[in-house]
Amino acid sequence: MMRLTDRDQAMLDWLAVVRIADIEAIRWALAGLAAESFPAAPVSLRKAQQWTARLEEVGLVGRARPGFIGGSVVWATHQATGRSAPNLFLQTQRHELSVARAAARYLTRGYAWERDRIALGSREHQADGVAIRDGLRELVEVELTAKTPNRYRVIHNDHAERLQSEVSRVVYLCTPDAAAVAAREADRLLFRDVRDRVLFFPVLQLPPYRAANWISGRVGRQVT
Fold first, then answer.
1. 1-110, which class in CATH?
2. pTM to 2 decimals?
3. Domain spans in the chain, listed from the N-terminal domain onward
């Protein structure tokens, strides 16, 4: 029977949070979860594939090559997490893969990654993830397409309330078009005392899975 390493277990725990990831995200997550100093460089593609194959062999990860990706996607299996396999053909899977890449980059900069709390009503918003370091919690939004003004009103109002108490800042990783719209709505809706802690980085490309370096070194960087 194969013995799991601490990093194996940490990777399975991370996959349980992000649900699905491509091999590029696996490269960065493997590096971040084993690093002793930060920022950490990603492991090689070969090492990421070897890790995936080793865990797949014992039934702890699943792997597939859906046509819309152009490469492999990976998830933790029911045996590992008690959850069923993801539906690979949901329209939201491109967004989920983008979130996993963002989460993996945060890991290489010494952050932990969690899912945000569930929104309990129409006036609350659940961010795409929470990056945590040195006791500070940072909401992360991955924005491939812009939302409506009414939706941004709910989202930015929720951000403003949480910035007053529980989170240090909100970081948007966006396509250029989405960044322009989301930032414009933030300018319109947020008061000056919190607006400077909602940051927009136009670092994504569409389709995101074809961009080799679609998140820049800004991910996880402390902004002063």
1. mainly alpha
2. 0.91
3. 1-110, 112-224
The 3-class secondary structure across the chain, one letter per residue, is: CCCCCHHHHHHHHHHHHHCCEEHHHHHHHHHHHHCCCCCCCCCCHHHHHHHHHHHHHCCCEEEECCCCCCCCEEEECHHHHCCCCCCCCCCCHHHHHHHHHHHHHHHCCCCEEECCCCCCCCCCCCCCEEEEECCEEEEEEEECCCCCHHHHHHHHHHHHHHHCCCCCEEEEEECHHHHHHHHHHHHHHCCHHHHCCEEEECCCCCCHHHCCCCCCCCCCCCCC
Q: Would 1-110 and 112-224 be classified into the same CATH topology?
A: no
Per-residue pLDDT tens over the stretch 112-151: 999 999 999 999 999 999 999 999 999 999 999 999 999 9
Where does 112-224 sit in CATH, by number?
A: 3.40.1350
